[in-house]
Specification:
The protein is mostly helical and 83 residues long. The protein contains 4 helices and no strands. Helix 3 packs across helix 4. 11% of the residues are buried. The model has no long low-confidence stretch (mean pLDDT 84).
């Protein structure tokens, strides 16, 4: 996960209350996508760019790349059925 953390420092800081629209929004999305895909969390991206958690989440949801909640689910047992 070190690669995702090093990529965070390269992200632009966007002042609060600055609206991203059009080409600026698309450019920002292209900057955060590889970092998110490499394992950085929405919260980490949010803190480094000074954008809200919701705005980052909305961008990623719109791009169709939002991960599920709860971390890695591989190898977990399914819940026991009650009988």
């Amino acid at each position: 996960m070190a690669s995702s953390r090093s990529g965070l420092t390269k992200l632009p800081v966007i002042p609060k209350r600055t609206q991203l629209a059009g080409a600026k929004r698309d450019e920002f999305l292209q900057q955060i996508l590889p970092i998110y895909k490499s394992g950085a969390s929405i919260r980490e991206i949010s803190e480094h760019t000074q954008r809200s958690f919701g705005s980052i989440q909305s961008l990623l949801r719109g791009a169709g790349v939002l991960r599920g909640r709860g971390g890695d689910q591989r190898g977990r047992c399914s819940p026991a059925s009650g009988s």
